[in-house]
Amino acid sequence: MEYNYPFSELIGALTIKQIKEVKKPDKDLLEDIQKITHDIDSIIEEKDLKLSAELIRLVIYLAQMDCHIWTCQDQMDEHPDDYDKHLRMKHQINGFRNQIKNKISVYTGDTIGHSNDSPDGLSWEISI
């Protein structure tokens, strides 16, 4: 394996790389994506993970949260007067993101836990 990360961290890294691939194309991203997907495949094989609707939903949720975080960062860059508002939103969304990664970790039997898993007042109703 190229990286020594748990499954949930690799999924998170993959979603971010894919967002970058769409928003800021760079040939070097493909190599990183291939390494990450190789490691994901290795873990799936090693742990004999079965695909389920729950896992698919969690991965989709994680990708959505990463897109929202990316949008907040864009807003921070484009509207410096609202920087704090968008920074707070990023922090809140990251709480959901960490909840999702924690659930993926449980699904895969990893013991990693992300401590900042509070959306800190963000009242999105998502079923994770």
What does it look like?
It is a single chain. The protein has 128 residues and is mainly alpha-helical. It has one domain. Helices cover 70% and strands 0% of the residues. It has four helices and no strands. Helix 1 runs antiparallel to helix 2. It is globular and about 50 Å long. The chain starts with 6 loop residues before the first helix and ends in a 20-residue tail after the last helix. The mean pLDDT is 88.
Unreliable stretches covering 5 or more consecutive residues: none
* Mean pLDDT over the full residue set: 88
Structural class by SSE content: mainly alpha
The percent of residues in helical segments reads over 70%
Radius of gyration: 15 Å
Instruction: Let me know the number of strands.
Output: 0
Can you write the helix and strand succession as a string?
HHHH
Number of helices: 4
Strand content: under 5%
The biggest beta sheet is recorded as: none
Number of domain modules: 1
For the terminal residues, how far apart are their CA atoms?
Answer: 29 Å
Could you say which overall geometry the principal axes of the C-alpha atoms support? globular
